[in-house]
Design goal:
With about 180 residues, this protein is mainly alpha-helical. The chain contains 7 helices and 3 strands.
């Protein structure tokens, strides 16, 4: 789409390697291009990262803006691929101040580390909850809600729960 909102080209391209190459080849006819991608931190991340790796300029179009443009452009909110692409292009052309997407490796690394830390915290919480549930089954009255590993060690029964309830006779042979 040109600056005056005339559609200068259109196409439908596969998301695979061949479709991406065909899209890039088709777009080369416009040397000063900026790609408007909807949801660069979500569903559009894959295509935005590929374009950035190839040295293209990419701006992030928030989904709410493209949905509003689709309603105003068509008079209804019906979502098709063609109207969706047109509304994203309209927002990319009309709106000043859209966030440019940059290939920031440090930011990507920090995002991975934050996700890993969150995952470890969720795993820890799940394991403590499972341990607490076990202690509720083994100890009458259970354990406190805020339970650390050291507290759980001291709460743990000192003898095997099976032998506590059914001790063998004195004449029972030991193995």
């Amino acid at each position: 789409m040109a600056g005056d909102e005339t559609v200068v080209g259109a196409g439908r391209f596969d998301t695979g390697r061949d479709g991406y190459a065909a899209m890039r080849k088709y777009a080369r006819q416009w040397p000063h291009r900026v790609w408007a991608i909807e949801g660069c931190q979500d569903i559009g991340r894959h295509i935005a990262n590929r374009l950035l790796a190839d040295g293209e300029q990419v701006v992030d179009v928030p989904p709410k803006l493209s949905a509003r443009a689709r309603v105003f452009a068509t008079g209804q909110g019906r979502k098709t691929d063609a109207t969706d692409a047109h509304s994203v292009a309209l927002v990319g052309t009309r709106m000043a101040g859209l966030r440019p997407v940059v290939n920031d490796e440090q930011l990507a690394l920090l995002r991975i580390l934050v996700d890993r830390r969150r995952s470890l915290g969720e795993d820890h919480t799940r394991m403590v909850s499972q341990l607490h549930q076990l202690l509720l089954e083994l100890i009458p009255g259970g354990a406190t809600k805020s339970l650390s590993a050291a507290q759980a060690k001291h709460c743990w029964p000192q003898s095997d729960p099976v032998t506590r309830s059914a001790k063998p006779d004195a004449g029972w042979p030991r193995s």
